[in-house]
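tmp note - Response regulator transcription factor
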Amino acid sequence: MSGGHRRILVVEDDPETAGQLVEELTVSGYDVDLATNGREALSHGGARDYAVITIDRMLPDIDGISVMRQLRDEGIAAPFLIISALGEVDDRVRGLRAGGDDYLVKPFSFTELLARLEALGRRSETIAKETLLRVGDLAIDLIARAASRRGRKIPLLPREFQLLEYLVRNEGRVVSRAMLLQHVWDLHFDPSTNIIDVYVGRVRRKVDDAQDYPLIHTIRGIGYCLRAPG
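out:
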């Protein structure tokens, strides 16, 4: 995994195993968050962007398979490494079919765990570079034509998605109404139309309302700019 994307979520309810995993992964150069039950896993998984999520099958409240399925339904694309004492073929097949990307049976070698994490991380980075665009906590999936903030899906109509994609591809740049009309609607500028303002208003409400910070900014007299703080 690259130096810029080495954050892992460990979902493990056994204190001894969790402590060992967090310590070993931290020493190996990873930033590690720990969830000790299913509810914590859902909260963490939807709030941050992880390179890999390791998850135990047997959790005290919500089982790992259900957690994984719910995070997938919320648009979380991070690869899952299932770590479980359930090692029968049927157990492994069920875990992988439920959305897991790899399966490691307890007890395991930490060296093997690291190798699997590195492989999943490389795969994740390759896919992300090819299909995902990100600005701050906003992610847009060019294949699924879907957008999310902090893992929460943003319902967008096709033209709204095109508008947001254009703003994201021009992150930090001021784009005029004429540019938006030409590149999103394939039309020449008509000074009498307010279609741009209407659509930007719709997209802004969907993207920015109830969020920690706005992404879409109006540049008075010129157009719009999409940027994250900092």
